[in-house]
Amino acid sequence: MMNIAFIAHDRKKEEMVNFVIAYEKVFEGHQLYSTGTTGMRIMEQTDLKIHRFMSGPLGGDQQIGALVAKNEMDLIIFLRDPLMAQPHEPDINALLRLCDVQGIPLATNVATAEILVKALDRGDLAWRELVDKYKPGIDQ
């Protein structure tokens, strides 16, 4: 079971919901997380149960980032809107940086998300379970 987070900027929320509907069967066996509104919209359209954090601008990105920093997230699908400035851009950049530091697969568009979800379905991301088990923490 993988820990998977969904984040979508306002103009990408419908695209995220449609994407999750298309791959609902793949996501069923995993622990799912999301920022507030994105998670609510996904749950309204699917049978998936999602742990919802606050809205991104209110700290939801940082709450997910805290799990990333502890290497407790395995996959993030973050549909960003590259054409609109975000008031919480530093939080977004911090989350992206943490994913790079921890080696956590991150999709920022549907094309990459589809590749990662198909890999998840095939079991290609099972290496994350080994990373989680053997990666030393900061205090070790």
Mind sketching the topology for me?
Layout: E1 3-8, H1 13-22, H2 24-27, E2 31-34, H3 36-45, E3 51-52, H4 60-69, E4 75-79, H5 89-102, E5 106-107, H6 110-122, H7 127-134
Parallel strand pairs: 1-2, 1-4, 2-3, 4-5
Shape descriptor reads: globular
Strand content: 5-15%
Q: Give the SSE order as H and E letters.
A: EHHEHEHEHEHH
Distance N terminus to C terminus? 25 Å
Please give the largest β-sheet.
5 strands, parallel
Counted by DSSP, the helix tally is: 7
Poorly predicted regions:
none
Amount of helix: 40-55%
Q: What do these coordinates show?
A:
The protein is α/β, with parallel strands linked by helices and about 140 residues long. Helices cover about 50% and strands about 15% of the residues. The protein is built from 7 helices and 5 strands; from the N terminus they run E-H-H-E-H-E-H-E-H-E-H-H. It has a 5-stranded parallel sheet, sandwiched between helices. The chain is globular and about 35 Å long. About 35% of the residues are buried.
Output the keywords.
140 residues; globular; 5-stranded parallel beta sheet; alpha/beta
